Amino acid sequence: MKRLWSWGAIIAGALYFLLPLIGTLEFSLRMRRGEYSLDAYRSVLADPAFRATFGYSVAMALLTILLGVLIVVPTAYWVRLRLPRLRPVIEFITLLPLVIPAIVVVFGYIRLYNTSSLLPLTGSATGTNLLLLCGYATLALPYMYRAVDTGLSTLDVRSLTEAAQSLGAGWVRIIGNLILPNVMGAVMSGAFLSFAIVIGEFTMAALLNRPAFGPYMQLLGANRAYEPAALAVIAFAATWGCMGLMQLISRLASVRRTAR
Amino acid sequence: MSFLNLDHLQKSFGSTQVVHDFSLSVDKGEFISFLGPSGCGKTTVLRMVAGFEEPSEGRILIDGQDVTRLRPNQRQIGMVFQAYALFPNLNVAENVGFGLKVAGVPRSERASRVAEMLELIGLPDMAARFPWQLSGGQQQRVALARALAPRPRVLLLDEPLSALDAKIRVSLRNQIREIQQQLGITTIFVTHDQEEALSISDRIVVMHRGIAEQTGTPPQIYNQPATEFVAGFVGKLNLFDATVLDRASGLVSLAGSEIRLNRPIPPGRVSLAARPEGLVLAETGIPAEVTGVEFLGSVQRLRARVGERDIVLDRFNTDASLPQTGDRLHLSPELSRWLLVSHEQ
To answer: What was the ipTM of the complex prediction?
Structure first.
Protein backbone atom coordinates (compact mmCIF):
# COMPACT_ATOMS: atom_id res chain seq x y z
CA MET A 1 0.00 0.00 0.00
CA LYS A 2 2.80 2.32 0.99
CA ARG A 3 4.63 1.46 -2.20
CA LEU A 4 1.52 2.27 -4.21
CA TRP A 5 1.41 5.74 -2.69
CA SER A 6 5.11 6.28 -3.44
CA TRP A 7 4.60 5.32 -7.08
CA GLY A 8 1.53 7.54 -7.22
CA ALA A 9 3.54 10.49 -5.95
CA ILE A 10 6.34 9.83 -8.43
CA ILE A 11 3.93 9.57 -11.36
CA ALA A 12 2.04 12.70 -10.32
CA GLY A 13 5.31 14.60 -9.97
CA ALA A 14 6.61 13.34 -13.29
CA LEU A 15 3.41 14.33 -15.04
CA TYR A 16 3.50 17.77 -13.43
CA PHE A 17 7.01 18.44 -14.66
CA LEU A 18 7.03 16.50 -17.90
CA LEU A 19 3.59 17.24 -19.40
CA PRO A 20 4.29 20.93 -20.09
CA LEU A 21 7.65 20.01 -21.56
CA ILE A 22 6.15 17.33 -23.75
CA GLY A 23 3.37 19.74 -24.75
CA THR A 24 5.90 22.42 -25.69
CA LEU A 25 8.02 19.90 -27.58
CA GLU A 26 5.02 18.55 -29.46
CA PHE A 27 3.83 22.04 -30.37
CA SER A 28 7.29 23.08 -31.56
CA LEU A 29 7.26 20.25 -34.12
CA ARG A 30 3.96 21.31 -35.73
CA MET A 31 5.10 24.27 -37.79
CA ARG A 32 4.44 22.41 -41.06
CA ARG A 33 0.73 21.79 -41.38
CA GLY A 34 -0.35 18.14 -41.04
CA GLU A 35 3.04 16.60 -40.21
CA TYR A 36 5.83 16.82 -37.61
CA SER A 37 8.92 18.70 -38.77
CA LEU A 38 11.98 20.54 -37.39
CA ASP A 39 11.13 23.71 -39.33
CA ALA A 40 10.72 25.82 -36.21
CA TYR A 41 14.15 24.70 -34.96
CA ARG A 42 15.71 25.39 -38.33
CA SER A 43 14.22 28.85 -38.29
CA VAL A 44 15.43 29.61 -34.76
CA LEU A 45 18.91 28.27 -35.28
CA ALA A 46 19.28 30.20 -38.51
CA ASP A 47 18.49 33.45 -36.71
CA PRO A 48 21.80 35.26 -35.98
CA ALA A 49 20.09 37.06 -33.07
CA PHE A 50 19.58 33.69 -31.39
CA ARG A 51 23.25 32.82 -31.58
CA ALA A 52 24.29 36.28 -30.42
CA THR A 53 21.92 36.46 -27.46
CA PHE A 54 22.44 32.89 -26.36
CA GLY A 55 26.21 33.27 -26.56
CA TYR A 56 25.97 36.53 -24.59
CA SER A 57 23.91 34.88 -21.85
CA VAL A 58 26.19 31.83 -21.60
CA ALA A 59 29.19 34.13 -21.26
CA MET A 60 27.37 36.19 -18.63
CA ALA A 61 26.38 33.02 -16.77
CA LEU A 62 29.97 31.77 -16.65
CA LEU A 63 31.19 35.17 -15.45
CA THR A 64 28.42 35.23 -12.85
CA ILE A 65 29.54 31.86 -11.55
CA LEU A 66 33.14 33.04 -11.41
CA LEU A 67 32.19 36.24 -9.59
CA GLY A 68 29.91 34.28 -7.26
CA VAL A 69 32.68 31.84 -6.37
CA LEU A 70 35.16 34.65 -5.81
CA ILE A 71 32.76 36.45 -3.48
CA VAL A 72 31.01 33.58 -1.75
CA VAL A 73 33.76 31.03 -1.05
CA PRO A 74 36.09 33.38 0.85
CA THR A 75 33.14 35.01 2.63
CA ALA A 76 31.48 31.79 3.75
CA TYR A 77 34.89 30.43 4.76
CA TRP A 78 35.80 33.50 6.75
CA VAL A 79 32.42 33.60 8.49
CA ARG A 80 32.79 29.95 9.51
CA LEU A 81 36.37 30.43 10.63
CA ARG A 82 36.35 33.76 12.40
CA LEU A 83 32.82 35.17 12.66
CA PRO A 84 30.60 32.19 13.47
CA ARG A 85 28.29 34.43 15.49
CA LEU A 86 27.60 36.51 12.38
CA ARG A 87 26.43 33.50 10.38
CA PRO A 88 22.69 34.13 10.86
CA VAL A 89 23.19 37.77 9.80
CA ILE A 90 25.16 36.84 6.67
CA GLU A 91 22.63 34.15 5.86
CA PHE A 92 19.83 36.71 6.14
CA ILE A 93 21.70 39.12 3.86
CA THR A 94 22.26 36.42 1.25
CA LEU A 95 18.55 35.60 1.30
CA LEU A 96 17.52 39.20 0.59
CA PRO A 97 17.63 38.80 -3.22
CA LEU A 98 14.79 36.31 -2.85
CA VAL A 99 12.48 38.91 -1.29
CA ILE A 100 13.66 42.01 -3.15
CA PRO A 101 12.32 41.82 -6.72
CA ALA A 102 14.86 42.10 -9.52
CA ILE A 103 13.05 45.16 -10.80
CA VAL A 104 13.72 47.01 -7.55
CA VAL A 105 17.41 46.12 -7.76
CA VAL A 106 17.70 47.21 -11.36
CA PHE A 107 15.91 50.52 -10.79
CA GLY A 108 18.27 51.08 -7.89
CA TYR A 109 21.21 50.46 -10.20
CA ILE A 110 19.86 52.81 -12.84
CA ARG A 111 19.32 55.57 -10.28
CA LEU A 112 22.73 55.11 -8.68
CA TYR A 113 24.85 54.59 -11.78
CA ASN A 114 23.10 56.67 -14.45
CA THR A 115 25.03 58.92 -16.80
CA SER A 116 24.76 61.95 -14.50
CA SER A 117 25.96 60.07 -11.42
CA LEU A 118 29.48 59.94 -9.98
CA LEU A 119 30.00 56.48 -11.46
CA PRO A 120 28.18 56.58 -14.81
CA LEU A 121 28.26 52.85 -15.51
CA THR A 122 25.14 52.89 -17.67
CA GLY A 123 26.90 55.29 -20.04
CA SER A 124 28.82 52.53 -21.82
CA ALA A 125 28.11 48.95 -22.92
CA THR A 126 30.98 47.61 -20.81
CA GLY A 127 29.77 49.48 -17.77
CA THR A 128 26.23 48.22 -18.26
CA ASN A 129 27.51 44.66 -18.74
CA LEU A 130 29.34 45.03 -15.46
CA LEU A 131 26.15 46.23 -13.76
CA LEU A 132 24.22 43.30 -15.21
CA LEU A 133 26.91 40.91 -14.04
CA CYS A 134 26.67 42.32 -10.50
CA GLY A 135 22.89 42.02 -10.69
CA TYR A 136 23.10 38.39 -11.78
CA ALA A 137 25.62 37.59 -9.03
CA THR A 138 23.18 39.12 -6.54
CA LEU A 139 20.28 37.03 -7.87
CA ALA A 140 22.40 33.87 -7.63
CA LEU A 141 23.75 34.74 -4.18
CA PRO A 142 21.19 32.81 -2.07
CA TYR A 143 21.80 29.58 -3.99
CA MET A 144 25.55 29.90 -4.19
CA TYR A 145 25.95 30.85 -0.54
CA ARG A 146 23.74 28.06 0.76
CA ALA A 147 25.47 25.46 -1.38
CA VAL A 148 28.98 26.55 -0.39
CA ASP A 149 28.08 26.96 3.29
CA THR A 150 26.66 23.44 3.34
CA GLY A 151 29.81 22.17 1.65
CA LEU A 152 31.96 23.90 4.26
CA SER A 153 29.93 22.36 7.07
CA THR A 154 31.34 18.95 6.10
CA LEU A 155 34.90 20.21 6.68
CA ASP A 156 36.73 20.91 9.91
CA VAL A 157 37.56 24.37 8.60
CA ARG A 158 39.46 25.53 11.65
CA SER A 159 41.76 22.53 11.97
CA LEU A 160 42.48 22.45 8.25
CA THR A 161 43.31 26.15 8.27
CA GLU A 162 45.55 25.89 11.29
CA ALA A 163 47.29 22.81 9.90
CA ALA A 164 47.98 24.67 6.66
CA GLN A 165 49.15 27.77 8.54
CA SER A 166 51.53 25.77 10.69
CA LEU A 167 52.98 24.40 7.44
CA GLY A 168 53.64 27.92 6.27
CA ALA A 169 50.68 28.49 3.93
CA GLY A 170 49.11 31.93 3.46
CA TRP A 171 45.44 32.77 2.90
CA VAL A 172 45.43 32.59 -0.89
CA ARG A 173 46.94 29.12 -0.88
CA ILE A 174 44.64 27.94 1.90
CA ILE A 175 41.50 29.08 0.09
CA GLY A 176 42.66 28.19 -3.42
CA ASN A 177 44.40 24.86 -2.80
CA LEU A 178 42.58 23.47 0.21
CA ILE A 179 39.17 25.01 0.80
CA LEU A 180 37.92 25.47 -2.79
CA PRO A 181 38.80 21.93 -4.03
CA ASN A 182 37.07 20.45 -1.00
CA VAL A 183 33.81 22.34 -1.61
CA MET A 184 33.94 21.89 -5.42
CA GLY A 185 30.86 19.65 -5.41
CA ALA A 186 28.89 22.29 -3.54
CA VAL A 187 30.23 25.02 -5.82
CA MET A 188 29.07 23.01 -8.83
CA SER A 189 25.54 22.72 -7.51
CA GLY A 190 25.54 26.46 -6.80
CA ALA A 191 26.89 27.01 -10.31
CA PHE A 192 24.10 24.90 -11.79
CA LEU A 193 21.45 27.11 -10.22
CA SER A 194 23.29 30.32 -11.11
CA PHE A 195 23.54 29.18 -14.73
CA ALA A 196 19.86 28.32 -14.94
CA ILE A 197 18.86 31.68 -13.43
CA VAL A 198 21.06 33.76 -15.72
CA ILE A 199 20.09 31.98 -18.96
CA GLY A 200 16.40 32.71 -18.48
CA GLU A 201 16.64 36.09 -16.70
CA PHE A 202 14.50 38.79 -18.31
CA THR A 203 13.91 41.79 -16.04
CA MET A 204 17.44 43.04 -15.48
CA ALA A 205 18.65 42.40 -19.01
CA ALA A 206 15.60 44.07 -20.54
CA LEU A 207 15.72 47.15 -18.31
CA LEU A 208 19.45 47.57 -18.75
CA ASN A 209 18.88 47.04 -22.47
CA ARG A 210 21.45 44.28 -22.93
CA PRO A 211 21.21 41.71 -25.77
CA ALA A 212 20.56 38.72 -23.51
CA PHE A 213 18.64 35.52 -24.19
CA GLY A 214 15.68 36.35 -21.92
CA PRO A 215 14.59 39.48 -23.79
CA TYR A 216 15.16 37.67 -27.11
CA MET A 217 12.78 34.88 -26.05
CA GLN A 218 10.21 37.46 -25.02
CA LEU A 219 10.57 39.31 -28.32
CA LEU A 220 10.25 36.14 -30.35
CA GLY A 221 7.31 34.97 -28.23
CA ALA A 222 5.45 38.20 -28.92
CA ASN A 223 5.86 37.91 -32.71
CA ARG A 224 5.94 34.23 -33.69
CA ALA A 225 3.86 31.13 -33.01
CA TYR A 226 6.01 27.98 -33.21
CA GLU A 227 9.51 29.35 -32.84
CA PRO A 228 9.16 30.33 -29.14
CA ALA A 229 8.28 26.75 -28.29
CA ALA A 230 11.31 25.49 -30.24
CA LEU A 231 13.43 28.12 -28.52
CA ALA A 232 12.23 27.02 -25.08
CA VAL A 233 13.15 23.42 -25.86
CA ILE A 234 16.55 24.47 -27.20
CA ALA A 235 17.24 26.65 -24.17
CA PHE A 236 16.18 23.85 -21.87
CA ALA A 237 18.41 21.31 -23.60
CA ALA A 238 21.33 23.74 -23.83
CA THR A 239 21.12 24.61 -20.13
CA TRP A 240 21.13 20.97 -19.10
CA GLY A 241 23.84 20.22 -21.64
CA CYS A 242 26.09 22.96 -20.27
CA MET A 243 25.55 21.76 -16.73
CA GLY A 244 26.25 18.18 -17.72
CA LEU A 245 29.47 19.38 -19.25
CA MET A 246 30.47 21.21 -16.07
CA GLN A 247 29.71 18.12 -13.98
CA LEU A 248 31.69 15.99 -16.38
CA ILE A 249 34.68 18.29 -16.24
CA SER A 250 34.74 18.43 -12.45
CA ARG A 251 34.17 14.66 -12.26
CA LEU A 252 37.01 14.02 -14.69
CA ALA A 253 39.27 16.36 -12.74
CA SER A 254 38.58 14.51 -9.51
CA VAL A 255 38.99 11.11 -11.16
CA ARG A 256 42.35 12.21 -12.48
CA ARG A 257 43.33 13.31 -9.00
CA THR A 258 42.30 10.00 -7.48
CA ALA A 259 44.01 8.00 -10.19
CA ARG A 260 47.30 9.83 -10.01
CA MET B 1 70.27 29.23 27.17
CA SER B 2 67.30 27.01 26.59
CA PHE B 3 65.84 26.52 23.13
CA LEU B 4 62.21 27.45 23.73
CA ASN B 5 61.33 30.10 26.28
CA LEU B 6 57.84 30.96 27.42
CA ASP B 7 58.26 34.12 29.39
CA HIS B 8 55.44 35.17 31.76
CA LEU B 9 52.67 34.31 29.31
CA GLN B 10 49.15 35.46 30.11
CA LYS B 11 45.97 35.06 28.13
CA SER B 12 42.50 36.42 28.70
CA PHE B 13 39.37 35.88 26.65
CA GLY B 14 37.21 38.89 27.47
CA SER B 15 37.16 39.14 31.24
CA THR B 16 38.15 35.49 31.79
CA GLN B 17 41.83 34.92 32.36
CA VAL B 18 42.66 31.40 31.18
CA VAL B 19 46.45 31.49 31.53
CA HIS B 20 48.11 33.21 34.50
CA ASP B 21 51.79 34.10 34.35
CA PHE B 22 53.06 30.93 32.68
CA SER B 23 56.82 30.58 32.31
CA LEU B 24 58.78 27.63 31.03
CA SER B 25 62.20 26.93 29.56
CA VAL B 26 62.58 23.94 27.29
CA ASP B 27 65.92 22.54 26.21
CA LYS B 28 66.65 21.54 22.64
CA GLY B 29 65.42 18.02 21.99
CA GLU B 30 63.38 17.90 25.17
CA PHE B 31 59.93 16.26 25.28
CA ILE B 32 57.61 18.24 27.53
CA SER B 33 54.03 17.29 28.34
CA PHE B 34 51.35 19.71 29.46
CA LEU B 35 49.07 17.67 31.66
CA GLY B 36 45.81 18.83 33.19
CA PRO B 37 42.04 18.56 33.13
CA SER B 38 40.05 20.19 30.34
CA GLY B 39 39.88 23.95 30.69
CA CYS B 40 43.18 24.19 32.57
CA GLY B 41 44.78 26.32 29.85
CA LYS B 42 47.19 23.73 28.45
CA THR B 43 45.86 23.92 24.90
CA THR B 44 45.76 27.73 25.07
CA VAL B 45 49.48 27.84 25.93
CA LEU B 46 50.20 25.45 23.05
CA ARG B 47 48.14 27.58 20.66
CA MET B 48 50.05 30.67 21.76
CA VAL B 49 53.31 28.90 20.91
CA ALA B 50 51.84 27.95 17.53
CA GLY B 51 50.66 31.51 16.94
CA PHE B 52 46.94 30.77 16.78
CA GLU B 53 46.34 32.81 19.92
CA GLU B 54 48.11 36.02 20.79
CA PRO B 55 49.32 36.30 24.39
CA SER B 56 47.78 39.14 26.39
CA GLU B 57 51.14 39.50 28.13
CA GLY B 58 54.55 37.87 27.91
CA ARG B 59 56.96 36.69 25.23
CA ILE B 60 57.74 33.51 23.33
CA LEU B 61 61.30 32.90 22.19
CA ILE B 62 62.44 30.11 19.92
CA ASP B 63 66.20 29.69 19.65
CA GLY B 64 66.64 33.23 20.93
CA GLN B 65 64.25 34.75 18.36
CA ASP B 66 61.19 36.55 19.70
CA VAL B 67 58.25 35.04 17.77
CA THR B 68 55.47 36.51 19.91
CA ARG B 69 54.13 38.73 17.13
CA LEU B 70 54.91 36.43 14.20
CA ARG B 71 52.06 34.85 12.26
CA PRO B 72 51.67 31.06 12.55
CA ASN B 73 52.98 30.50 9.02
CA GLN B 74 56.19 32.37 9.84
CA ARG B 75 57.16 30.41 12.94
CA GLN B 76 58.51 27.14 11.48
CA ILE B 77 56.46 25.06 13.84
CA GLY B 78 55.04 21.61 13.19
CA MET B 79 51.68 20.83 14.69
CA VAL B 80 49.61 17.67 15.02
CA PHE B 81 45.92 18.01 15.86
CA GLN B 82 43.49 15.80 17.73
CA ALA B 83 41.26 15.58 14.64
CA TYR B 84 44.20 14.70 12.29
CA ALA B 85 43.31 17.62 9.99
CA LEU B 86 44.70 15.93 6.89
CA PHE B 87 43.75 17.72 3.67
CA PRO B 88 40.98 15.53 2.22
CA ASN B 89 41.65 16.53 -1.40
CA LEU B 90 45.32 15.58 -1.25
CA ASN B 91 46.77 12.08 -1.09
CA VAL B 92 49.25 10.99 1.56
CA ALA B 93 52.34 12.04 -0.39
CA GLU B 94 50.82 15.44 -1.23
CA ASN B 95 49.77 15.93 2.38
CA VAL B 96 53.25 15.15 3.66
CA GLY B 97 54.84 17.29 0.94
CA PHE B 98 52.49 20.26 1.45
CA GLY B 99 54.78 22.21 3.77
CA LEU B 100 57.75 21.60 1.47
CA LYS B 101 55.76 22.79 -1.54
CA VAL B 102 54.78 25.95 0.34
CA ALA B 103 58.45 26.49 1.16
CA GLY B 104 59.33 26.20 -2.54
CA VAL B 105 61.36 23.01 -2.23
CA PRO B 106 62.03 21.58 -5.74
CA ARG B 107 59.94 18.61 -6.81
CA SER B 108 62.70 15.96 -6.75
CA GLU B 109 63.94 16.97 -3.33
CA ARG B 110 60.35 17.02 -2.11
CA ALA B 111 59.71 13.49 -3.34
CA SER B 112 62.75 12.09 -1.58
CA ARG B 113 61.90 13.87 1.66
CA VAL B 114 58.31 12.58 1.49
CA ALA B 115 59.58 9.03 0.92
CA GLU B 116 61.94 9.43 3.86
CA MET B 117 59.09 10.64 6.09
CA LEU B 118 56.77 7.81 5.06
CA GLU B 119 59.55 5.35 5.81
CA LEU B 120 59.98 6.99 9.23
CA ILE B 121 56.34 6.50 10.16
CA GLY B 122 56.26 3.01 8.72
CA LEU B 123 53.81 3.69 5.88
CA PRO B 124 56.04 3.60 2.79
CA ASP B 125 53.37 2.02 0.58
CA MET B 126 50.59 4.46 1.38
CA ALA B 127 51.81 7.44 -0.68
CA ALA B 128 48.96 7.30 -3.20
CA ARG B 129 46.16 6.71 -0.69
CA PHE B 130 43.73 9.42 0.28
CA PRO B 131 43.02 10.25 3.94
CA TRP B 132 39.60 8.58 3.85
CA GLN B 133 41.26 5.32 2.85
CA LEU B 134 43.34 5.22 6.06
CA SER B 135 42.54 4.16 9.62
CA GLY B 136 42.63 6.74 12.42
CA GLY B 137 46.06 5.61 13.58
CA GLN B 138 47.47 5.76 10.06
CA GLN B 139 45.98 9.21 9.51
CA GLN B 140 47.61 10.50 12.66
CA ARG B 141 50.98 9.05 11.62
CA VAL B 142 50.64 10.80 8.26
CA ALA B 143 49.78 14.01 10.13
CA LEU B 144 52.96 13.54 12.17
CA ALA B 145 55.02 13.00 9.00
CA ARG B 146 53.42 16.09 7.46
CA ALA B 147 54.31 18.19 10.50
CA LEU B 148 57.90 16.90 10.54
CA ALA B 149 58.64 17.06 6.81
CA PRO B 150 59.59 20.78 6.64
CA ARG B 151 62.02 20.26 9.56
CA PRO B 152 60.23 22.51 12.08
CA ARG B 153 62.08 23.99 15.03
CA VAL B 154 59.44 22.86 17.48
CA LEU B 155 56.85 20.09 17.28
CA LEU B 156 53.49 20.70 18.96
CA LEU B 157 51.14 17.80 19.62
CA ASP B 158 47.61 18.76 20.66
CA GLU B 159 46.06 15.64 22.23
CA PRO B 160 47.06 13.62 19.15
CA LEU B 161 46.00 10.29 20.64
CA SER B 162 42.61 11.21 22.10
CA ALA B 163 40.57 10.12 19.09
CA LEU B 164 42.22 6.68 18.85
CA ASP B 165 41.35 3.43 20.55
CA ALA B 166 43.34 2.17 23.51
CA LYS B 167 45.74 -0.24 21.84
CA ILE B 168 46.71 2.07 18.99
CA ARG B 169 47.08 4.88 21.50
CA VAL B 170 49.82 3.00 23.33
CA SER B 171 51.70 1.88 20.23
CA LEU B 172 51.47 5.30 18.56
CA ARG B 173 52.64 7.15 21.65
CA ASN B 174 55.70 4.91 21.78
CA GLN B 175 56.29 5.53 18.09
CA ILE B 176 55.97 9.29 18.60
CA ARG B 177 58.55 9.14 21.37
CA GLU B 178 60.93 7.02 19.27
CA ILE B 179 60.71 9.39 16.31
CA GLN B 180 61.09 12.40 18.57
CA GLN B 181 64.27 10.97 20.10
CA GLN B 182 65.58 9.88 16.71
CA LEU B 183 65.17 13.39 15.28
CA GLY B 184 66.02 15.15 18.53
CA ILE B 185 63.19 17.61 17.99
CA THR B 186 61.96 19.86 20.78
CA THR B 187 58.40 18.76 21.47
CA ILE B 188 55.41 19.91 23.47
CA PHE B 189 52.70 17.34 23.98
CA VAL B 190 49.32 18.30 25.39
CA THR B 191 47.29 15.61 27.09
CA HIS B 192 44.78 15.03 29.84
CA ASP B 193 45.93 11.41 30.19
CA GLN B 194 48.41 11.02 33.06
CA GLU B 195 49.63 7.63 31.87
CA GLU B 196 50.54 9.09 28.47
CA ALA B 197 52.35 11.99 30.07
CA LEU B 198 54.21 9.83 32.59
CA SER B 199 55.28 7.26 30.02
CA ILE B 200 56.86 9.39 27.30
CA SER B 201 57.92 12.75 28.73
CA ASP B 202 61.27 14.11 29.77
CA ARG B 203 59.40 16.59 31.91
CA ILE B 204 55.76 17.21 32.74
CA VAL B 205 54.04 20.50 33.46
CA VAL B 206 50.91 19.84 35.48
CA MET B 207 48.46 22.64 34.84
CA HIS B 208 45.41 23.69 36.81
CA ARG B 209 43.25 26.78 36.36
CA GLY B 210 45.74 28.43 34.04
CA ILE B 211 48.70 27.95 36.37
CA ALA B 212 51.64 25.56 36.16
CA GLU B 213 51.18 23.75 39.47
CA GLN B 214 54.35 21.71 39.17
CA THR B 215 57.05 21.11 36.59
CA GLY B 216 59.26 18.07 36.93
CA THR B 217 60.34 14.69 35.62
CA PRO B 218 57.68 11.96 35.66
CA PRO B 219 59.11 10.35 38.86
CA GLN B 220 59.23 13.76 40.55
CA ILE B 221 55.64 14.49 39.63
CA TYR B 222 54.44 11.11 40.81
CA ASN B 223 56.61 10.56 43.86
CA GLN B 224 56.91 14.13 45.10
CA PRO B 225 53.73 15.93 44.11
CA ALA B 226 54.05 19.55 45.16
CA THR B 227 50.38 20.29 45.68
CA GLU B 228 47.21 18.47 46.57
CA PHE B 229 45.96 18.97 43.04
CA VAL B 230 49.01 17.37 41.44
CA ALA B 231 48.90 14.52 43.93
CA GLY B 232 45.22 13.90 43.23
CA PHE B 233 45.36 14.37 39.46
CA VAL B 234 48.40 12.24 38.74
CA GLY B 235 47.72 8.75 40.05
CA LYS B 236 45.46 7.76 42.92
CA LEU B 237 46.13 9.16 46.33
CA ASN B 238 44.96 8.19 49.82
CA LEU B 239 44.68 10.98 52.36
CA PHE B 240 44.83 10.28 56.11
CA ASP B 241 43.74 12.26 59.17
CA ALA B 242 46.95 12.42 61.16
CA THR B 243 48.00 14.58 64.08
CA VAL B 244 51.33 16.38 64.08
CA LEU B 245 53.36 15.54 67.18
CA ASP B 246 56.58 17.28 66.25
CA ARG B 247 56.99 19.42 63.14
CA ALA B 248 60.77 19.72 63.28
CA SER B 249 61.51 15.99 63.33
CA GLY B 250 58.47 15.00 61.30
CA LEU B 251 56.65 12.92 63.88
CA VAL B 252 52.91 12.34 63.41
CA SER B 253 50.32 10.08 64.90
CA LEU B 254 47.77 8.18 62.84
CA ALA B 255 45.07 6.05 64.47
CA GLY B 256 47.25 5.34 67.50
CA SER B 257 50.42 4.56 65.53
CA GLU B 258 53.39 6.88 65.46
CA ILE B 259 54.85 7.63 62.08
CA ARG B 260 58.36 8.97 61.63
CA LEU B 261 58.70 10.88 58.39
CA ASN B 262 62.34 11.75 59.12
CA ARG B 263 61.96 15.18 57.53
CA PRO B 264 60.54 18.43 58.85
CA ILE B 265 56.90 19.15 58.16
CA PRO B 266 56.41 22.41 56.25
CA PRO B 267 54.32 25.12 57.86
CA GLY B 268 50.66 25.54 56.95
CA ARG B 269 48.02 22.88 56.47
CA VAL B 270 49.42 19.61 55.19
CA SER B 271 47.95 16.16 54.69
CA LEU B 272 49.59 12.81 55.17
CA ALA B 273 49.10 10.76 52.05
CA ALA B 274 50.20 7.55 50.35
CA ARG B 275 49.82 6.00 46.91
CA PRO B 276 47.73 2.79 46.73
CA GLU B 277 50.80 0.74 45.80
CA GLY B 278 52.83 2.39 48.56
CA LEU B 279 50.74 0.96 51.39
CA VAL B 280 51.81 -2.36 52.88
CA LEU B 281 49.85 -4.77 55.09
CA ALA B 282 51.41 -5.76 58.41
CA GLU B 283 50.65 -7.81 61.53
CA THR B 284 50.26 -4.70 63.65
CA GLY B 285 50.00 -1.01 62.92
CA ILE B 286 47.23 1.19 61.60
CA PRO B 287 43.91 -0.66 61.82
CA ALA B 288 41.84 -0.85 58.63
CA GLU B 289 38.59 -2.59 57.70
CA VAL B 290 38.23 -4.03 54.21
CA THR B 291 35.14 -2.63 52.47
CA GLY B 292 35.65 -4.16 49.06
CA VAL B 293 38.00 -6.22 46.94
CA GLU B 294 38.67 -5.87 43.22
CA PHE B 295 40.67 -8.36 41.24
CA LEU B 296 42.39 -6.55 38.36
CA GLY B 297 44.53 -9.34 36.95
CA SER B 298 48.08 -8.38 37.82
CA VAL B 299 46.92 -6.33 40.79
CA GLN B 300 44.60 -6.89 43.73
CA ARG B 301 42.88 -3.67 44.78
CA LEU B 302 41.54 -3.49 48.34
CA ARG B 303 39.16 -0.79 49.47
CA ALA B 304 39.40 -0.15 53.17
CA ARG B 305 38.33 2.29 55.83
CA VAL B 306 40.90 3.93 58.12
CA GLY B 307 39.24 6.08 60.76
CA GLU B 308 36.87 8.32 58.82
CA ARG B 309 38.71 7.95 55.50
CA ASP B 310 38.18 5.49 52.64
CA ILE B 311 41.45 4.36 51.14
CA VAL B 312 42.62 2.12 48.33
CA LEU B 313 45.51 -0.34 48.55
CA ASP B 314 47.04 -2.11 45.57
CA ARG B 315 49.23 -5.15 45.79
CA PHE B 316 50.61 -7.53 43.22
CA ASN B 317 48.62 -10.66 42.52
CA THR B 318 50.84 -13.15 44.32
CA ASP B 319 49.89 -16.42 45.96
CA ALA B 320 48.71 -14.63 49.09
CA SER B 321 45.02 -15.22 49.60
CA LEU B 322 42.60 -12.45 48.74
CA PRO B 323 41.18 -10.73 51.85
CA GLN B 324 37.40 -10.67 52.15
CA THR B 325 35.08 -7.73 52.67
CA GLY B 326 34.76 -7.14 56.43
CA ASP B 327 38.25 -8.44 57.28
CA ARG B 328 40.20 -6.37 59.76
CA LEU B 329 43.79 -5.73 58.70
CA HIS B 330 46.68 -3.50 59.70
CA LEU B 331 48.71 -1.12 57.58
CA SER B 332 52.41 -0.77 58.24
CA PRO B 333 53.31 2.68 59.59
CA GLU B 334 56.92 2.27 58.47
CA LEU B 335 56.76 3.34 54.87
CA SER B 336 59.46 5.09 52.97
CA ARG B 337 56.82 6.59 50.68
CA TRP B 338 54.58 8.61 52.94
CA LEU B 339 53.79 11.84 51.13
CA LEU B 340 53.14 15.25 52.60
CA VAL B 341 50.75 17.26 50.50
CA SER B 342 50.36 21.00 50.99
CA HIS B 343 46.85 22.36 50.77
CA GLU B 344 46.13 25.22 48.46
CA GLN B 345 45.99 28.50 50.33
So the answer is: 0.82
